[in-house]
Design goal:
The chain is α+β, with helices and mostly antiparallel strands and about 270 residues long. It has helices spanning about 5-10, 50-60, 135-145, 150-160; strands at about 20-25, 40, 65-70, 75-85, 95-100, 105, 110-115, 145-150, 220, 230-235, 250, 260, 265-270. It has a single domain (about 1-270), classed as paralog of FGE (formylglycine-generating enzyme).
């Protein structure tokens, strides 16, 4: 990938800006995606004892997945107190600190689902898979009995009920995640591969314990309510970017892939 393409095409503000000083983002209720939704069955039965119920709840999701449960706000307002970049095209691109608390501008709704703790790593490998498109993510997730995450699910797994702007909090920290690197291109002008193994950045963890949702790889999701399913990309990657839970890149189609693209999967619970 040439540097001009990497910087201008893949990390420019999306056609519908989602990282303005007053951030407002709305999501629709999830609709059925392509293919039948997956249901997971290892949840507590109504007549189980308290200890059994607690144990079942802890294991409601398959290994290496995290249970995300709570009240999600579809439309949120974040106010940036201070930006990092000088005046110009990207002056409101990276926020150093957001005001607390965020404002919920819509009724909350209950969400309960499973999400991969880490970006997808192929068996036998240590780095998350890159050069993956939305179509590849869809096929790989389905093969595991999972599905591509909805954008609203990804948002909630990243920000929690507190509606954090960054998975780790309210102030941008260049050392918390695999992000904000400036040595980006090789001698041929191609984007350097700066992926890190899952868990390399111990503080890059969301309120639910989901890792690397800011930086590392830019992850494909499905836009809520889109028919046919339309992709968005979340979390940005290792360059100086928004790395903001609500920000999304929507300029690419289902088949786009690059050094910076990857994914993680979600799954429904049997009682949902």
């Amino acid at each position: 990938m040439a540097v001009a393409f990497a910087l201008a095409a893949c990390d420019r503000p999306s056609p519908e800006p989602r990282a303005l000083q007053l951030e407002e983002t709305a999501s629709l209720r999830p609709l059925v995606q392509e293919g039948a939704p997956v249901k997971l069955t290892n949840v507590a039965r109504p007549n189980a004892t308290a200890a059994q119920a607690e144990s079942a709840e802890e294991n409601a999701c398959p290994a290496n997945m995290v249970l995300v449960e709570g009240e999600y706000c579809p439309k949120v307002r974040h106010q940036c107190l201070r930006y990092l970049d000088p005046p110009g095209r990207f002056e409101k691109f990276r926020c150093a600190e957001y005001a607390q608390p965020a404002q919920c501008l819509s009724p909350r709704r209950t969400m309960r689902f499973c999400i991969d703790r880490d970006e997808y790593v192929a068996p036998g490998n240590t780095l998350p898979e890159n050069h993956k498109s939305w179509t590849h993510a869809d096929q790989t997730c389905r093969a595991q009995g999972k599905r591509v995450c909805l954008e609203s699910e990804w948002n909630f797994a990243c920000e929690g009920e507190e509606m954090r702007p960054y998975p780790y909090g309210w102030k941008r920290d260049a050392t918390a995640c695999n992000a904000d690197h400036t040595d980006l291109v090789d001698a041929e002008g191609n984007l350097k591969d700066r992926r890190a193994p899952p868990g390399s950045y111990s503080r890059c963890e969301s309120p639910f314990g989901v890792r690397d949702m800011a930086g590392n790889l830019e992850e494909f999701v499905t836009i809520d309510g889109s028919t046919p399913a339309r992709p968005a990309m979340k979390g940005a990657y290792w360059q100086p970017s928004r790395n903001f839970c609500r920000a999304a890149q929507t300029a690419h189609d289902r088949y786009y892939n690059g050094t910076e693209t990857g994914f993680r999967c979600c799954a429904d619970l049997a009682d949902e």
